[in-house]
């Protein structure tokens, strides 16, 4: 029987820099999905310690991560770089989508994503009277419920690190993952609430947070059902735009 290499291995990993070539081979394996160290060794050929070292190094810079079963997989930094590459599509889509969302729900809508300086508001519709956040504003922390979105889908190590000093717990984040959205009341004004949903980019990771902010009467309890449906649908469309 003829064995055919996977498409990724059609690439030549011969840059002349040994460490770089090992990292390239490892990433090629993970393009096909999560893989154990044994699988990586079987495909790339080096010994187990030789395979483990580049995996550990790439994990430290978030190009590789591990799933719940301990297998290695492509890391969140690759998704983030893809979002930066395709971010204009997401912003363009948000420019028309967020006003529709505001009209449908009656509350303000904002799109946030991470940047080197903090959290960036990349699109908005509606005014936040209590806490104005114009487009282009960089915040040192995620606002309201949006704080839970990027952490909830992180690997365990990063998740627990993100919980340091947070006003929510690992149990809260588990509920966010199960529901696919979250909501909080404003700490300074309990009559205002924020409902947030993840925008998923390449690989299904949460690369941005779509947040609705307005009267708690519209975003909590029974009336929140319509807002959840609207926010989740808009976040899905934004994710598709970023992945195009």
How does the SSE layout of this entry go?
Layout: H1 18-30, H2 37-44, H3 48-60, E1 64-66, E2 72-74, H4 76-105, E3 108-115, E4 118-125, E5 138-139, H5 148-152, H6 156-162, H7 170-179, E6 182-185, E7 192-200, E8 206-215, H8 216-219, H9 224-242
Textual characterization of the structure:
- The protein has about 240 residues and is an alpha+beta fold.
- Helices cover about 45% and strands about 20% of the residues.
- It is built from nine helices and eight strands.
- It has helices at about 20-30, 35-45, 50-60, 75-105, 150, 155-160, 170-180, 215-220, 225-240; strands at about 65, 70-75, 110-115, 120-125, 140, 180-185, 190-200, 205-215.
- A hairpin with a 2-residue loop joins β3 (about 110-115) and β4.
- α1 packs across α3 (about 50-60).
- The longest helix has 30 residues, at about 75-105.
- The protein is elongated and about 60 Å long.
- It starts with 17 loop residues before the first helix and ends with a helix.
Note the main attributes of this structure.
single chain, 244 residues, alpha+beta, 6-stranded antiparallel beta sheet, two-stranded antiparallel ribbon, 9 helices, elongated, disordered N terminus
């Amino acid at each position: 029987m003829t064995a055919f290499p996977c498409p990724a291995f059609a690439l030549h990993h011969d840059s002349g820099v040994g460490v770089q070539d090992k990292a390239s081979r490892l990433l090629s394996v993970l393009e096909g999905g999560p893989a154990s160290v044994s699988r990586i060794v079987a495909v790339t050929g080096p010994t187990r310690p030789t395979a483990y070292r580049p995996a550990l190094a790439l994990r430290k810079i978030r190009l590789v991560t591990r799933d719940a079963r301990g297998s290695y997989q492509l890391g969140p930094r690759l998704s983030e770089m893809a979002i930066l590459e395709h971010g204009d599509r997401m912003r363009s889509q948000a420019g028309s989508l967020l006003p529709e969302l505001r009209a449908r729900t009656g509350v303000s809508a904002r799109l946030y994503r991470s940047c080197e300086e903090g959290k960036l508001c990349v699109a908005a519709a509606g005014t936040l009277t209590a806490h104005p956040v114009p487009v282009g504003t960089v915040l040192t922390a995620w606002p309201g419920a949006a704080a839970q979105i990027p952490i909830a889908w992180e690997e365990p190590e990063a998740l627990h690190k993100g919980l340091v000093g947070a006003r929510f717990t690992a149990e809260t984040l588990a509920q966010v993952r199960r529901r696919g959205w979250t909501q909080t009341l404003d700490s300074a004004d309990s009559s205002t609430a924020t409902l947030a949903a993840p925008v998923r980019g390449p690989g299904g990771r949460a690369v941005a947070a779509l947040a609705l902010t307005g009267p708690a009467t519209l975003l909590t309890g029974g009336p929140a059902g319509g807002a959840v449906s609207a926010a989740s649908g808009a976040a899905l469309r934004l994710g598709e735009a970023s992945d195009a």
